[in-house]
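Hi everyone, sorry if this is the wrong subforum. Our group has a chain we'd like a structural model of before ordering constructs, and none of us has done structure prediction before. Sequence below.
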Amino acid sequence: MTAPVFVVESVPEGGRYVLEGVEGRHAVSVRRLKAGEDVVLADGRGRGAEAVVVAAEGKDRLVVDVTGVVVEEEPRPRITVVQALPKGDRGELAVETMTETGVDAVVPWQAARCITQWKGERGAKSLAKWRATAREAGKQSRRLRFPEVADAMSTKQVGALLATADFAAVLHEDRDADSGALALAELPQEGTIVLVVGPEGGVSPEELALFAQAGAKPYRLGRSVLRTSTAGTAATALLLGRTGRWS
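Answer:
Right subforum, don't worry. Here is the predicted structure as tokens:
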């Protein structure tokens, strides 16, 4: 098995290091790591220290010897998914599976047909949950670079983001629409790819028109219609394979 990942604010360059606090407690009391086992201390921004456990002390102190530092390069092309807000906890599910698959950034989107509304304290709590989910899923999937979860965007802000992308697409379920297959789209090998995943009610005609002006064309994934909480994961997997990032 690959070594478990624990998050640190600053990656140690070498020598002895003590992992404490929440991460230390998880390592000692939950994972019950013992001397001689391997671990990785990651900052979530692309740097990680490979280490060997020396001892577990108390309930929340893991003493390790750092044996080396690993740096994960910025992904190319970078994949961002603009995720319309799903109902209930399906937003966290979407973030979790996209993180495990390999997405680089997630943008919460308050689409016109979203039932869920992020406002005030509720919106702040929901965003915090998405970010915590990305962090935990990044650890679980042994990533050194966790996805960035942006502040929620309006449709106008999403349009501005799409205009900066090297490839922009709106996942669209209408088989009668003038949309091509994402599996056949010409993709860049560098730069940025931005995908828009609409809500369960679909992307409105007005939103499609605004996104088209920003250069985002509609594309379909396949013959079946995926839920908003799974479409981003499926599309990310497809793009990772097609761009060579899964080679």
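For your construct planning: The longest strand covers residues 47-57. The two ends are 21 Å apart (CA to CA).
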